[in-house]
From TrEMBL, chain A:
Pfam families: PhnG (PF06754). It comes from Candidatus Desulfobia pelagia. This is Phosphonate C-P lyase system protein PhnG. InterPro entries: Phosphonate_metab_PhnG. Signal peptide: none annotated. Keywords: Lyase. One of its GO terms (biological process) is organic phosphonate transport. It comes from the Bacteria. GO terms for molecular function: lyase activity.
UniProtKB/TrEMBL annotation, chain B:
SUPFAM superfamilies: PhnH-like. GO terms for biological process: organic phosphonate metabolic process. InterPro entries: PhnH-like_sp (IPR038058), Phosphonate_metab_PhnH (IPR008772). The keyword Lyase applies. GO terms for molecular function: lyase activity. Transmembrane segments: none annotated. This is Phosphonate C-P lyase system protein PhnH. Keywords: Lyase.
Length: 163, 183
């Protein structure tokens, strides 16, 4: 994904918004959302929850389900009403155990999806998240490149042994 | 984010404690008003009792659509539901489940919304476990059909349990209680 001057929320698919925003510092996102949504009426559509989710898989021989392990998971689904009367809902499901963060992300989702007042600020966060994501991706590529083994040298060693 | 009082764990725990007391001492009336923040008692009771594993039949459409995702319970027909939410002045319809001899706990609990609890023109006298001698309960808006349904369902240990709730308070009539209606 490339970083452009267009609105991020128009370029990036909604399904990726939470992934990108969750790359940012939780306190930064929560503070931005709290400032932006001051005076808004935000109520849960389902109860925000955090805890451990079990990962269930089926074995390939008997197709019996078994629990591979557990992951931290937090979910939120909120209804937003602005003082101007705009109504929206947003949701988030993230592998964190920070309930305040996931609630803020759900509000971000609602703001971006419905272009609520001040959505440009959340759009800017989305841009920062994309940049952070690209940096991480590049770092991983570099690490992978650094661990690459050149097996062609082994052929040269074997040839030397035979001689 | 503003979360209504009945969805907050500390209030749900208090309401649940009151329900435990009501079940242990049938006919005793417990005030839930402090933890409801103005909403009706049946919403507070449901919020405390239900979770994702429960099934609920809203027999008389007392719940709003927005309550369902918060309750997390699955909607179910009367015959299969764990909990039935009913209006006391309406007639019952359908046969709630009464459990089995091996699992009598897998029966339905009726949450009946009535007009008044602790005062009113109707009088029930309860006897049985949890009551020293007898307990007199005044109430209003509890149709005779619900008592007939309870009587028909009762074949101990099988049967249904009833929770009566008005705007602010709750009481319980478990299947172990013997009832006498006084006019």
């Amino acid at each position: 994904m490339s970083v452009t001057t267009e609105k991020m929320s128009s370029i990036v698919d909604r399904s990726q918004w939470i992934r990108l925003l969750s790359k940012l510092d939780a306190e930064q996102v929560v503070a931005e959302v709290n400032t932006l949504s001051s005076g808004w009426q935000i109520t849960p559509k389902s109860l925000p929850q955090s805890g451990l989710a079990m990962l269930k898989l089926e074995d390939s021989a008997y197709n019996e389900p078994f629990y591979l392990g557990e992951i931290p998971l937090a979910t939120a689904w909120v209804d937003i009403v602005t003082p101007e009367g705009s109504n929206a809902d947003g949701a988030a499901q993230v592998m964190v155990d920070n309930l305040e963060f996931v609630q803020a992300l759900a509000v971000c989702d609602g703001i971006l999806a419905n272009r609520l007042p001040g959505y440009e600020r959340i759009d800017e966060l989305l841009r920062q998240g994309l940049e952070q994501c690209n940096r991480e991706e590049q770092r991983r590529k570099n690490m992978l490149a650094a661990t690459r083994v050149d097996f062609s040298l082994l052929d040269a060693v074997e040839d030397d042994d035979e001689n | 984010m503003k979360i209504e009082a009945i969805w907050q764990p500390e209030n749900q725990q208090r309401i649940f404690r009151a329900l435990m007391e009501a079940m242990a001492r049938p006919g005793s009336v417990h005030c839930l008003g402090n933890w409801l923040d103005g909403t009706h008692g049946y919403r507070g009771v449901l919020a405390s009792l239900l979770d994702i594993q429960s099934t609920l039949s809203d027999c008389h459409n007392l719940l709003e659509a927005g309550d369902w995702p918060l309750l997390q319970a699955r909607p179910e027909v009367v015959e299969k539901a764990d909990y039935l939410l009913c209006r006391g002045n309406a007639q019952p319809s359908g046969d709630p489940k009464v459990g089995t001899l091996s699992c009598p706990d897998q029966s339905a609990t009726l949450l009946v919304q009535i007009e008044a609890l602790g005062h009113g023109k109707q009088t029930l006298v309860l006897r049985g476990p949890g009551i020293k001698t007898s307990c007199t309960l005044q109430l209003e808006g509890f149709g005779a059909g619900w008592l007939e349904l309870r009587e028909q369902s009762l074949s101990f240990p099988l049967g249904i349990d009833i929770i009566l709730v008005d705007q602010h308070s709750v009481t319980a009539i478990p299947r172990t209680s013997r009832l006498e209606v006084r006019s």
